[in-house]
Every structure is written in structure tokens, then in C-alpha cells.
Design a protein that fits this description.
By secondary structure, this protein is mainly β. Helices cover about 10% and strands about 35% of the residues. It folds into four domains: about 65-140, no CATH class; about 140-175, no CATH class; about 185-315; about 330-665, Pectate Lyase C-like (3 Solenoid). The radius of gyration is 42 Å and the shape is flat.
């Protein structure tokens, strides 16, 4: 092979002398005799012939598919014998796995088609060839939902549905603007009238290095102490103050203590001179990592030096979870959304196993600070005790759950697995300490206020408070509260009342606020069981639809200046129904009692038999009782035994005759 270049026209002439050209060279011969590549004309002719051939085959395939389709098939049809394709008529979600990544087959089973399955939402075809069945399927697009469902991770929704859901939230976020650096969430100055800091009231004295308060008074120093402020809503603290004096290496008193989650203490601000310099200082500290802090704010001559505190949240948030709260208030679907703290969302587990004491108590402080209620859904919260801290200004603490009817109580038999009965929101405690006057829910006193009252209105709705058989602590200990309101509340010991052990500790299911209270102790649909005392009653108590079971004393009236009133009261298996231990004026409009009948008692619950319907040995009460009694298995009986009670008018329902003396004894008591 040789070649020559002709002039400057870049034309190359190649002369081929080889009979067979090399493999690496393409040659074209217009007659197709020697060349190894088609000309354009030759290619077009070949492609046209192949295209016609392909079209013919596709047409044949379509005809074959159409002739191969044998019709639809139901799961109940006789198994087809003719080969071909069949369209399943019925599909389902049978055996659909919860895991979307599962490879397990699901859908309606066709036993007449080799046990193939037809899935809901899929286009499916079955194919029969001899004894073999196969299928093809493809997922069909779903109809877009017109209402946005946040739990649906499969189906589409319309654009309007998405807009309806999120436009309000976007608007809310757009309206919520925080200026750069605006991260102060609370300021406190020495002369401020509102001195409650995150639910904690100030006390006087000296803050000791063991995180307790020592009584102290000095004419030239000002001392205010806030003990154990929960570190929930702030991260930094700035103090403007004069530092306490004392030993630098081993201080007896400190200005700021940080308590870690494990209970250990850090002296964040302590003495640096002995004695104190009296110099005004400004100190900023990071308190993240502590569960609570205790502050002693001091000043030499508070007439000229005004101490102050500033609480700061990171990243400029005006309050804890502020953006979420603002969005909730704008997009709420329930009138309660912006007015309560969901205990589960707050961090409580609510599983009845995990100890929720710390988180629940933190939520109480947050609720008092924000003015919102606490909502527990239908969860069970295990705690030791819940403490309502002292406050100096009138506040309401409301705890509520989902409503559940109070379970049946009675005088006979038992209820299997009573403790497992679903009872809505439950607060349970197994605390077995020995401190007097403890309760599952305890309202702390406030020594700074009249008669040690805490300025709290305690509201409890739709919940159960449970301890254990023969408990060492009370249920609701509201002695120090100003007011108490209870609706649909059960306080029990976790067992069916007939099986309750005899209480041996001085406890009460409910202790109402003591004398000189805020004149509102309202009890509606309240039931108590298994405590030494059902309800310990002080003045201004108004109760209706009350049920007390298996207590040593059902209603226990304490000393009172103002009268109390009860509408309908049910008493079953209480040793003493009405006990009077202090001067008290009261009315019980209808007292219903049921006595133990034959074969309804044994040695374990013999203590539950009635001794006195009215036990007032010192004749301290003045008032009236209208009663109606029955005996199990017998019916109505007139018996009513009185010990003292000369100032109480006792009549049977429908009778104008007043019982006198010892009342009406039971001539045939059940033994």
C-alpha cells in the first residue's frame, strides 16, 4: 500500500495493492465486493429492511398478548386449566409487614393460581404455563389526600393540604423575631415586689456550704437566699452583689452553689477575702451542667447598693422552647394546646417503671413560672414524692390527665389484677420513708407568709394517685395550700379495697388546707381507699359524690371556724364513718353506707367492720347527717351507732325522727 499528497488541497490518494486490506483500516467499495464497510446508501437499505422486520414482530407479540389473556380471576374461582394470563379481581393488605424494607410477600392469596398474592394498590397479572404460575406487578400511584397526615409516610397529599398544614406555622415563624443579643429571660432587682425566681421563694439567713440555710440576722447586711432553683430555662447567671467573707480554702458560707445531677456540690462563687471587702462585684457564670443552683444575694448597706440578678439563655431564646410554644399558640387545634405542658414532651417517661421524680418536679416549677397546667395523657408516672415549692404570690398549679371512669369498688369478692385496670393518668409511689406528713403530692409551707400558707391553688383533675398496701405516706397532702380543687380523682393503695391491709401509719388519702385557708376546698367525684384516714377535713370544705372505702376513718373532721358541707357520701367497709376530733360545724345531706353481709368477711379484713357511724366522743361537732344503710345480701337496715355526738342531728332518709343517745344498734351483727 502506498500514498501520495496532491498539492495543497489536503487530498490524499491511497493506492491499495494488497488483496486483503489490513484489519485496522476501513475500506468502502461501492459495489460491495471488496470493502468491509457499508456506504450510506447500503446502510439505509439494510436498516429499512430490519425496521420492517421489527415492526412485524412487535405486531405479532401484541396479537399474541391479546389472544393470551384469558380473563379475570377471583380467589374462589376454580383453578384455570388453560395456559395464558389472568387478571386478579381482589387484592388486599393481608400479612403486610410493618417494616417497609421487608421482602416478605403479602396480599390476597390465590390458592387457585399457585398461591400467588395480589397486593392492594398494585397492578398485578398472573401467568400460567403448564403447572407453573408467575406474576408481574407494579405499584399504582395513590390518590392524593386532601387532608395532611403527619403519620402517613406512603401516600401523597395535595398541595393545598400541605399549605393548609404549614402556612400558619410559616407565618408564626415569620412573626417571631428575636433581636440579636436579646437573650435575657429574667432580671431581678433587690426591691422588686415579685421575688419568686422560677417557682422558688426567697428565704432569709446564710447559705451554708452544705447547701442548707442557717438562721442569721445582721443590721448592716442584706441576705436573700433562693435554695435549689432548677436549671431548666437558663444557661448563664450574672450577679451584681457584694461577696460574703470567710475562709477561701474551706468556706463555711458561699454566694452561689451548683448541684450536679449526681448530687455533688460546686462552690461557684465563694469568699476570696476574710473578712469581706464590701466591694460591689459583677460576676457572670455558666451554670449548664447543673441540675439546680442555690443563690445567696448579699449587699453591704442595701440603701446605697442595690444587688441584682440576670438570667440568660443561650442563642438569644427569650424562653425555654419559645419558638415551639409560639407556633403551638398559632396553629393550635385544641383550646388547651397553649395552656399546658405535656409531661411526656417535657421529658418524663410515663411508663410506670422509670423514676420520673426529677423531671416531674422540674415541670411543676416550669408550670408555676409560666402559668400553664401539667397534662399527663393516660400515662403512669412513677415518683417518690412531688413537691410544690413555696411561692409568695398567688399561683395556680393544675395537674390533669385523660378522663377515665373510676373503677368499681364494693363490699364483696375481689377484682382480678386490680392494679392493672386502666385508670387514665396515674401517679404511683413506692416511697417508704418515715418523715411525718409526707405525701405523693406535697405542698410545701412558706414561713414568709401568714400561718405558713403557700400561696397555691392546687387543682387536680382526671387522675389516679396510688401508693401501696398499708402506706407510710399520704396521697394528696395539701395542708399548706391556700385552696384545693379536685374533680374525678381516685387515691388508692394499688389493691382492691376488700383486700386492703389494716392501715397502721397515720396517713390520709386527702388532707385539705388548714384553717384560715382561701375558702375554697372543692371535692367532686373523689374516691379514696386503703388509708388510715379517707379525707382529713378542715374548714370551707365542700364535697359531693364522695366515696370512701376500707379506711380506719372515712371522714375525719378537724378543728374549724367555718362550716363544711357534703352532698352525697358513700361509705363501705370503714371502721369509723364520721370521726370528729375538733370543733366543726358540718352537714352531710345523704350518707349512704353498706354493711358487710354474711360470708363477706374473713380474718384478713375483719378490721373493716363498722364500729361507729358517728364517732364524736368529746361532743365537739354541731351539724346534721341524713343517712341510708343497707346490709349485703339483706337490703335496707336502720342501724346507726353513735359515740357522743350530742350536737349532731341524725335522721334516716324519709324520717323526721332524730336519733338520740347511742343511736340504733345492730341486733344481729355479722361475726
Amino acid at each position: 500500500m502506498s500514498g501520495t499528497v496532491n498539492g495543497n488541497n489536503n487530498q490524499v490518494t491511497i493506492n491499495i495493492t494488497d488483496t486483503i486490506p489490513p484489519d485496522n483500516m476501513a475500506t468502502i467499495d461501492k459495489n460491495g465486493l471488496v470493502g468491509n464497510t457499508y456506504t450510506k446508501t447500503q446502510f439505509d437499505q439494510s436498516f429499512s429492511a430490519k425496521a420492517n422486520e421489527i415492526d412485524t414482530k412487535i405486531e405479532n407479540i401484541q396479537q399474541m398478548v391479546e389472544s393470551d389473556f384469558k380473563g379475570t380471576l377471583k380467589p374462589t374461582d376454580t383453578a384455570p386449566t388453560e395456559d395464558g394470563s389472568y387478571k386478579p379481581e381482589v387484592s388486599s393488605n393481608d400479612d403486610k409487614p410493618a417494616d417497609p424494607n421487608s421482602t416478605a410477600d403479602w396480599g390476597k392469596v390465590y390458592a387457585n393460581a399457585g398461591n400467588l398474592r395480589a397486593k392492594e394498590g398494585y397492578d398485578t397479572m398472573f401467568y400460567k404455563k403448564g403447572i407453573t404460575w408467575k406474576k408481574s406487578e407494579s405499584k399504582m400511584p395513590n390518590t392524593a389526600a386532601k387532608i395532611f397526615n403527619t403519620n402517613d409516610n406512603e401516600n401523597p397529599s395535595t398541595m393545598k393540604a400541605a399549605a393548609d398544614r404549614y402556612d400558619p406555622a410559616i407565618t408564626a415563624l415569620g412573626n417571631f423575631a428575636i433581636a440579636p443579643g436579646s437573650n435575657t429571660i429574667k432580671n431581678y432587682a433587690w426591691a422588686d415586689s415579685e421575688q419568686i425566681l422560677f417557682g422558688i421563694a426567697p428565704q432569709s439567713g446564710l447559705l451554708k456550704s452544705n447547701n442548707t440555710i442557717e438562721s442569721y440576722s445582721s443590721p448592716d447586711y442584706g441576705f436573700k437566699i433562693w435554695l435549689n432553683i432548677p436549671v431548666v430555662t437558663f444557661d448563664f447567671l450574672t450577679l451584681n452583689f457584694t461577696r460574703i467573707g470567710g475562709s477561701v480554702s474551706n468556706p463555711s458560707y458561699v454566694n452561689l452553689i451548683g448541684k450536679k445531677p449526681n448530687g455533688s456540690l460546686d462552690f461557684i462563687v465563694k469568699p476570696d477575702h476574710d473578712p469581706a471587702t464590701g466591694q460591689l462585684e459583677n460576676v457572670s457564670v455558666d451554670v449548664t451542667g447543673y441540675s439546680s443552683i442555690s443563690i445567696m444575694l448579699t449587699a453591704k448597706n442595701t440603701d446605697t447598693v442595690k444587688p441584682s440578678l440576670t438570667f440568660i439563655k443561650k442563642n438569644g431564646a427569650l424562653e425555654f422552647d419559645a419558638v415551639k410554644k409560639y407556633i403551638d399558640s398559632k396553629t393550635a387545634t385544641s383550646s388547651h394546646t397553649a395552656n399546658y405542658i405535656d409531661l411526656i414532651d417535657y421529658g418524663c417517661k410515663g411508663d410506670g417503671v422509670t423514676d420520673d421524680t426529677l423531671k416531674f418536679n422540674e415541670a411543676i416549677v416550669e408550670a408555676l413560672s409560666s402559668g400553664r397546667a401539667l397534662y399527663g395523657r393516660s400515662n403512669t408516672f412513677k415518683v417518690s414524692t412531688l413537691n410544690v415549692p413555696a411561692v409568695n404570690t398567688w399561683k395556680k398549679l393544675e395537674i390533669f390527665g385523660d378522663f377515665m371512669p373510676i373503677p368499681t369498688y364494693g363490699t364483696i369478692g375481689n377484682i382480678p389484677d386490680y392494679a392493672q385496670i386502666q385508670k387514665g393518668m396515674r401517679i404511683i409511689s413506692g416511697w417508704a420513708g418515715t418523715t411525718q406528713n409526707m405525701g405523693v403530692l406535697l405542698v410545701q409551707n412558706n414561713p414568709n407568709l401568714f400561718d405558713n400558707f403557700n400561696f397555691i391553688t392546687l387543682v387536680l383533675r382526671n387522675l389516679v394517685i396510688s401508693t401501696y398496701d398499708n402506706p407510710k405516706l399520704s396521697g394528696v397532702q395539701a395542708y399548706n395550700a391556700q385552696q384545693l380543687i379536685m374533680h374525678n380523682v381516685l387515691i388508692d393503695t394499688g389493691v382492691y379495697n376488700v383486700a386492703s391491709l389494716e392501715p397502721t401509719y397515720e396517713t390520709a388519702a386527702v388532707v385539705t388546707p388548714h384553717n384560715s385557708n382561701g375558702a375554697k376546698n372543692t371535692l367532686r367525684n373523689v374516691m379514696a381507699s386503703g388509708y388510715f384516714t379517707g379525707i382529713s377535713i378542715h374548714e370551707h370544705t365542700d364535697g359531693d359524690d364522695i366515696a370512701i372505702h376500707s379506711c380506719k376513718h372515712a371522714l375525719r373532721f378537724r378543728n374549724a371556724d367555718h362550716a363544711s358541707y357534703f352532698g352525697r357520701v358513700l361509705s363501705q367497709r370503714n371502721t369509723n364513718v364520721v370521726t370528729v376530733e375538733g370543733q366543726h360545724l358540718f352537714t352531710i345531706a345523704q350518707l349512704n353506707m353498706e354493711y358487710v353481709g354474711s360470708n363477706q368477711s374473713d380474718s384478713t379484713n375483719a378490721w373493716q367492720k363498722v364500729q361507729y357511724e358517728l364517732n364524736d366522743p368529746s361532743n365537739l361537732a354541731m351539724g346534721s347527717i341524713t343517712y341510708a344503710n343497707v346490709r349485703g345480701g339483706v337490703g335496707k337496715v336502720p342501724y346507726f351507732r353513735i359515740n357522743g355526738g350530742s350536737g349532731v342531728i341524725v335522721k334516716r332518709v324519709g324520717s323526721d325522727t332524730r336519733l338520740t343517745g347511742a343511736g340504733i344498734a345492730d341486733p344481729n351483727p355479722v361475726t
